[in-house]
Design brief:
The chain is built from ten helices and twelve strands. By secondary structure, it is α/β, with parallel strands linked by helices. The chain folds into three domains: about 80 residues, Winged helix-like DNA-binding domain superfamily/Winged helix DNA-binding domain (Arc Repressor Mutant, subunit A, Orthogonal Bundle); about 100 residues, 3-Layer(aba) Sandwich (D-Maltodextrin-Binding Protein, domain 2); about 90 residues, Periplasmic binding protein-like II (D-Maltodextrin-Binding Protein, domain 2). Strands 4-3-5-12-6 form a five-stranded mixed beta sheet. A three-stranded antiparallel beta sheet has the order 10-7-11. Strand 1 and strand 2 form a beta hairpin. Helix 1 packs across helix 4 and helix 4 runs parallel beside helix 6.
């Protein structure tokens, strides 16, 4: 007898996708505004409906099973279609444009899927995305060049600067070759121009460890900095989940630990409807 078809509950699917994306039940519960026990129950109900295990749980991490990895892209498409249908029916005539500024490294890793889902939901809204250094983004924001800006900042800046925290970054040291030593003399750094949070993290960590350093290469473009590191000009600091192929993470035995930093979403307050919807979408999607 053929197995009866299962109609999926999208609330359960959304809970699964959020857990899989964030890697933690606690963070998923915060993102969805629910209790952790509720999120756990929703995942259990989804696994029962599908008659398969989607996630492996441990005290420190959550990871996808083989079946979970196969199901995830289908789950994401289901949610995207649902959100697009709801948006089209609730605000079918929303048109306009939104000017968004973002750091280049963040734009190339975390934003593409987030912005793609927004465009699917609001196809008549044009996005104007500018990638630049945080310093230039903040200057453009003050001059009214952007509606919204994603900016790197120190966690302590929350108390003194406007903006909503949407992402926390764990930072690591990277070099061009796993077997390459740091050599004699000061640590050679590949950095962005000041002021740069990653640059500050690197120099402060080395100073605390009593390790001499020097700036070997400064470049405002992410691609140029990565090329310099690959060529062996020095080590650099990058977010752990943004390390590209060809670079190697250096261990704590060689270089000091780095403090996390964060990404904040800034706006001027008086936003157009499309800009307000994008702000809500980014905040909901990222944290």
């Amino acid at each position: 007898m053929p197995r009866p078809l299962v109609t999926l509950d999208l609330d359960l699917v959304r809970a699964f996708v959020t857990i899989a994306t964030l890697g933690q039940f606690t963070q998923a519960a915060l993102r969805l505004g629910r209790q952790q026990s509720t999120i756990s129950l929703q995942l259990a109900r989804l696994e029962t409906a599908l008659d398969t295990r989607l996630l492996e749980r441990s005290p420190r991490a959550v990871r996808l099973t083989l079946e979970g990895a196969r199901f995830l892209p289908h789950a994401q498409r289901l949610l995207a279609l649902n959100d697009a249908a709801v948006a089209e029916l609730s605000e079918p005539a929303m048109v306009g444009s939104v000017r968004l500024g973002t750091p280049e490294d963040f734009a190339t890793t975390h934003l593409p899927q987030v912005l793609a889902r927004f465009v699917q939901a609001y196809p008549a809204v044009a996005l104007e995305v500018t990638c630049d250094l945080t310093l230039n983004l903040l200057e453009g924001f003050r001059e009214g060049q952007f509606d919204l800006v994603l900016a790197k900042r120190e966690p302590a800046a929350r108390a003194t600067r406007e903006g909503l925290k949407v992402w926390q970054e764990a930072l690591v040291w990277v070099s061009g070759a796993a077997e390459a030593g740091l050599g004699d003399g000061p640590v050679r750094l590949v950095v962005s121009p000041e002021p740069c949070v990653y640059r500050k993290r690197a120099t402060q960590a080395l100073d605390r460890a009593g390790m001499p350093w020097r700036i070997a290469y400064t470049c405002g473009a992410l691609s140029g900095a990565i090329a310099a590191v690959k060529a062996g000009l020095g080590v650099a600091v990058l977010p752990r989940d943004m390390v590209p192929d060809g670079l190697h993470v250096r261990g704590a035995a060689e270089l000091p630990a780095l403090q996390d930093t964060e990404i904040a979403l800034l706006d001027h307050g008086a936003l157009s409807l499309p800009a307000r919807r994008l702000k809500e979408h980014i905040a909901r999607s990222l944290g």
